[in-house]
Amino acid sequence: MTEDTVFAAGCVLWRRSPYGDGGVEVCLVHRPKYDDWSFPKGKLKRGEDEITAALREVLEETGHRCVPGGRLPTARYVANGRPKQVAYWAAEATSGSFAASGEVDHIVWLPPAAARNRLTQPRDRTLLDALLEALHVA
After folding, report:
1. Is the pLDDT of residue 1 over 60?
2. What residue ranges define each of the domains in the chain, with the CATH number in brackets?
3. Would you place residue 48 in the very low, low, confident or very high pLDDT band (cuts 50, 70, 90)?
4. 22 in helix, strand or coil?
5. pLDDT given at position 2
6. Nearest to residue 110, comparing CAs of 16, 23, 26, 36?
7. Does the pLDDT of residue 22 top 90, yes or no?
8. What is the β-pairing status of strands 6-16 and 82-96?
9. Residue 52 to residue 31: CA distance in whole angstroms
10. pLDDT of residue 20
11. What is the pLDDT of residues 53-85, one digit of tens each?
12. Contacts of 76 (CB under 8 A, 6+ apart)
C-alpha cells in the first residue's frame, strides 16, 4: 500500500438466531449514499487503532455493542481512485438497537445464505465465509 492508502476497520457482526434453531444471523447495513449492503466499517480516526475503530463503527452504524472475536481477512481494493485497506473482525452482538442515520438508513439480520445473496460486493462474501468457518457453521 502507498502513503495515500485509506485505512479502515469493521466487523462481521453476528448473533445467535432468535429462533432457537442453533443457527446464526449476520448484520448487514444499507448505505444510501452508495445504495449498497455491506458489513459495518469506517475510516480510522487519527491515532486510533484498528480494533477500536471497528467497534466504534459497529456501534455508530448499527447501534449495537459487540464482543470482538477472531481477526478475519483484510480487504484491499481501490475506492474513489485511492487504495483502501479494511481490517475486519468477527464480532458477536451483545446489546443495542438501531436508529437510522444519514450514513446508514437500514440494517437487516439475515441467515448466512440470505446475507450472501444480499451483499453487494463479492469481496464481502469472502468475509462471510471466513466468519462461518471461524464459527464452525456450515
Report:
1. no
2. 6-135 (3.90.79.10)
3. very high
4. coil
5. 64
6. 26
7. no
8. parallel
9. 21
10. 80
11. 999 999 999 999 999 999 999 999 999 899 999
12. 1, 83, 84, 85, 86
Residue 14: closest CA among 121, 133, 109: 109
In angstroms, the CA 83 to CA 3 distance is: 9
Dig out the grid coordinates for 112 from the structure.
Answer: 448466512
Compute how many other C-beta atoms are within 10 angstroms of the C-beta atom of residue 81.
6
**Residue 138: per-residue pLDDT:** 60
The grid cell for 90 is 468477527
CA distance 133 to 8: 23
Helix (H, G, I), strand (E, B) or coil at 102: coil
Spatial separation of the C-alpha atoms in residues 8 and 84, rounded to whole Å: 7
| Distance between CA atoms of residues 73 and 78, nearest Å | 16
DSSP secondary structure of 90-105: EEEEEEE-----SS--
